[in-house]
Amino acid sequence: MEIRQISLENYRQFRNQKIIFKNCVGNNIHIVIGTNGAGKTNLLNGINWCLYNDEPHLGINSKALPIVNLFTLEETDIGSNCNVCVEICCKTDQGLFTFKRQSLFRKSENNNQVFNINTDFSVITQFENQGTKFYQDDDAQKWLNNFVPLSIREYFFFDGERLDNYFIKETGSKIKDSIFEISQIKLLSNVRYKLDNVIKDLLKEETKNKPDIDEKRKDYEDTQELISDYSFELSEIRDQISKSQQIITECNEYLRGMPDVEVLEANRESLIQKSGKIKNKLLSKKDDYSSFNKDAVIQINSYPGISFTINLIDELHENGKLPPNIDKNFLENMVLSEKCEICGNKLSLSSKSRIFELIEKIKLSSTVSHGLMEIRPSLRNISSSIKDFKNNLRKLSSEMEEIEKERDENQRSIDEINQTLEGFKDKEKIVQKHKDRGLHEQMKEDNLRREGVIQNALEEAKKELKKKKKELDAAINTSGHIEKATMQRIFAENTREVAANIERKLLDEVREKIENTTDKIFKDLVWKKNTFKNVKLSNDYSLSLIHVDGYECLGSCGAAERALFALSLTLAIHKESGFSSPLIIDTPIARISGKNRENFSRVLGEVSVNKQIFLFLTHDEYSSSVNQILNPILCSKHFLISTNNEKETLIEKE
Amino acid sequence: MSEPNIIYIEKADRKIIDELKDSGFLLLSNSTNNQIFLIALSIGFRDDIQIPLDSKESFTRVEYLSDIEKTVIYSCAIKHFGTSNILDDKSKIFEYAQESAHYGFGVLANYINHGSIELTQSELIRDLINRYDQVYSEY
């Protein structure tokens, strides 16, 4: 199935434009080039609007504007109508069919405001031997569902950003929904749902007018409802777990080999604070050391003098040339009071005369003796402190060395952290990733606990349901003969079981097929042939890419490889869904840089051999190297040219 | 005889003292003037060299000297003059102290003007240990 023509009438900046895509042999690749704001994304919106009546990629500027072309609107009188129409003409083996959406808008009194009067969606087929046929409403919808159903359109028409962040946004359950849609098992699940209701009705009929049994039936149905609630809750929890796991994996991949910046910064801060304290400690110790050395210089240099004077005093003392060490006033007071100041007794005459002798001796002593007596205690102090000079010097030196060692070790730790942090420019992002990971690890843990609790409750409820079912069946069968309603119910129950089994098998089959096809496509297209081992689509539908060394590596892949992986899944879904509709990507390589732009362009070229591809590119994306790869295989190249103050865009073919 | 109450230094030594304080040598910036004077005096005593002051300026007051500081000055003078009777002539003691210090300031100036302070300090400590061994065994 191929798109052959797109016509846009009064749709946003396209006043009356038509693009024709010719039939191609070999590569089926078409590009539309335009500057930012020229209308590439609105062309994609136009296709979505025509098919699904919405504009999922509308930018902020466009959101503020009416859907009707501004020039047309200006030319329309207030109260008059204007028509917006987009047509997409496709070609299949049977012939041509065209999707057409047409909306009538009326211009209101508020300038540039319009309101929708009515919208028609139709499909026109022009098949060989069948002439032209016209379909509307449900019939038109059926044609659309055969082209690309709404539920999987995001695999066909999308913004390149989707390729970039696909694995961040998409959860297992979303992929599961797509697989559910692709498996086309809606019919089976509808059957199952309808049978559930039939069984309920039949049970009601069986227990009618039997209050005891009816009580049991209600009890049974309550348990069924409880199981359904538990199952829903369980699926929500699992979804959340899967999402958390995805974010944890992505963070792990991003943070592989990266430090916990926040912890390192905190450590660094505390080491710097410690460094300040050590510095002060060292300064104070150095002060002690200097002070000790200053005293030592004085004491050691003057030691011959100190020692000489000590010996001199000792000698004078020994020869009795120095007065006794007594306070003269103390003696005089004793004589005056006639009382011994030591024992308190009255002084005898002989004692008095002895004291007088002493006072006389002191009077006679020279200033020399006094001077010597005055410095004697200090001399002893200096002499004794000098004795320990070496020990004290050693002690102070080793204390200083210890502090210096501590300072050096602390500095080394700071340097190591600085060195570790230096290589990482995006520190904020690393911190955020650590936070996200921590948050999701906690959420995952909480949800796993909840999952266990609900799972247990569900198992218990299922056992209870079985028991209640037995009791209900037994109560219904007590009458002896089986009624018609019972027979019908048993048949419906069996049928429901078969439908459920088929549904499960089909889902598993499609999941497996998509896994294998994604793996094959990715390996065929990837330019690093020896890096990746395989693609995995697990039972919970979460996708992973395994490195040849065995670890999950999606998070550590470059933007181009991630986009290729998303593209591979997209193409696998295309293939397995059986929808051969074209692939339209807006700005597919804008987020890819350098050599990988060429790699990715080459891949798109390869894909276009089997699939019609439309690429909406900026001039920057369509660089000379990309041009060299795509130009030789292009089917068509169109340019979007903005005119009239960007109110209108013309589409020109090269 | 009146006792002196001022200690003088050679005018030019003031500059050396300032340089010593600025140099970081033995962290002299944290020392009192008395301490610096005694270091210089002890060097003059060690080498037994005194240089008379040409042009003196007051440096500190005698009353500001601690007992230990006085003891160092007196005992150096006693040893130099070989008698304790010198204590009777304080002027002579302080003259001796001032002239010894004047020489000592010159030595200290040499310390800080030749080579790195750290090396000079290490040398000083090594020298101090040797001298300690020597004087302690001698006296």
What does this structure look like?
The complex is a heterodimer of chains A (654) and B (139). By secondary structure, chain A is an alpha/beta fold. Among the domains of chain A are: 210-264 and 425-496; 265-323 and 365-422. Chain A is built from 19 helices and 14 strands. In chain A, the strands form 3 sheets. In chain A, strands 2-1-4-5-6-7 form a 6-stranded antiparallel β-sheet. In chain A, helix 5 crosses helix 17, helix 6 (172-182) crosses helix 16 and helix 8 (211-255) packs antiparallel against helix 15 (427-477). Chain A is elongated. The model of chain A has no long low-confidence stretch (mean pLDDT 85). Chain B has 139 residues and is mainly alpha-helical. Chain B has one domain (6-113). Chain B is built from 5 helices and 2 strands, in the order βααβααα. A two-stranded antiparallel ribbon of chain B has the order 1-2. In chain B, helix 3 (67-81) packs across helix 4 (90-113). Chain B is globular, with a radius of gyration of 15 Å. The mean pLDDT of chain B is 90. The chains are: A alpha/beta (654), B mainly alpha (139).
Keywords:
heterodimer, A: 654 residues, alpha/beta, 19 helices, 14 strands, B: 139 residues, mainly alpha, two-stranded antiparallel sheet, 63% helix
What about the largest sheet of chain B? 2 strands, antiparallel
Task: Give the DSSP E fraction of chain A (strand runs of 2 or more residues).
Answer: 15-25%
| Class from secondary-structure proportions of chain A | alpha/beta
Q: Average pLDDT value of chain A?
A: 85
Q: Terminal Cα separation of chain B, in Å?
A: 34 Å
Total domain modules of chain B: 1
Q: What is the count of β-strands of chain A?
A: 14
Overall shape of chain A: it is: elongated
SS element count, helices of chain B: 5
- Cα Rg of chain B: 15 Å
Q: What gross morphology of chain B would you assign? A: globular
DSSP strand content of chain B: 5-15%
